[in-house]
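## retry 2 of 3
previous attempt timed out at serialization; input unchanged, resubmitting
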Amino acid sequence: NAVAFAPGGRSLATASSDRTARVWDVDRAEVLHVLAGHGDEVHSVAFSPDANLVATAAGDHVARLWVAQTGECLRTLTGHRSALSSCTFSPHGKLLLTAAADRTARLWNVDSGEFMLEMS
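## retry succeeded, writing output
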């Protein structure tokens, strides 16, 4: 479904139809963490600019923020009314933008998980 390298290129994340994402060690070609918790296939993954967080966006209308080093789900971002198609961090890593099949995009505060605004 999707892949993303971490800044620095030592890790990567993959999104899967099995409702999970995975964080990989590139040098060893090993899975470090399976990010499980979505209720539908994961369509998009993104690393924060500091590589500390992984964002996932899925068909269950939910985005999640995960701690890249541990695989722990830090935040669940809800409010979209249709399947999510993509997610991306702002260059400074303080904001996350998610896009959905209903042609809306939502901006989120990464530190608090607070919804900030919707664009359509």
